[in-house]
Design brief:
By secondary structure, the protein is mainly alpha-helical. It has a single domain (3-179), classed as LemA-like domain (de novo design (two linked rop proteins)). 77% of the residues lie in helices and 0% in strands. It has 6 helices and no strands. It has helices spanning 3-60, 65-79, 86-107, 111-115, 117-152, 156-163. Helix 1 (3-60) runs antiparallel to helix 2 and helix 1 runs antiparallel to helix 5 (117-152).
């Protein structure tokens, strides 16, 4: 082999590695963004269920307006977060989870409500949605962790720096109680 052949082989291997590293970072970034979109889909479903749940409980507990207002305000705040950071979403979701817990506490005082089929169905759907949100958060955090590891690790960090790949934020809940799904069983 000549020196020129060896140099061409080395250049080809380095070029191949650059392409693979770049494409790997693009793939991880896109998967993390997709995971974030999955969280938003489940949160939208949750936001759509909440007015139905509030209206069902209102029919039985009309004098408990504070709990209804708190849930409505927390829902509006959570929906208004928009494309802000995962930390902003987590804070809004903490408030909404707390408001929902107070709504379910109000419902415990009304045995007829707890037996109402519409209320039971809404509870079931909300519980299912909470499970899906939790799974979507875990998937998102897994993708972000993998991406962040690649962005930080040598030699991929060189490619990440050259092409502007940045670390993404994990979706973390500040409050340990908010990490629990909303309790929907009595």
């Amino acid at each position: 082999m000549t020196t020129t052949s060896i140099i061409l082989i080395v250049v080809a291997v380095v070029a191949l590695w650059l392409v693979l590293a770049y494409n790997g970072l693009v793939s991880l970034t896109n998967r993390a963004k997709e995971a974030w979109a999955d969280i938003n889909v489940q949160l939208k479903r949750r936001y759509d269920l909440i007015p139905n749940l509030v209206e069902t409980v209102k029919g039985y507990a009309a004098h408990e307006s504070t709990a209804f207002e708190n849930v409505t305000k927390a829902r509006a705040a959570a929906m208004g977060v928009g494309s802000e950071s995962p930390a902003a979403h987590a804070a809004a979701e903490n408030q909404l989870s707390g408001a929902l817990k107070s709504l379910f506490a109000v419902s415990e005082a009304y045995p007829d409500l707890k037996a109402n089929q519409n209320f039971l169905q809404l509870q079931k759907e909300l519980g299912d949605t909470e499970d899906k949100i939790q799974a979507a958060r875990r998937f998102y955090n897994g993708m972000v962790m993998t991406l962040n590891t690649r962005v930080q690790s040598f030699p991929t960090n060189l490619i990440a720096g050259m092409f502007g790949f940045k670390e993404m934020d994990l979706f973390e809940l500040d409050n340990a109680a908010a990490a629990e799904p909303v309790k929907v069983q009595f």
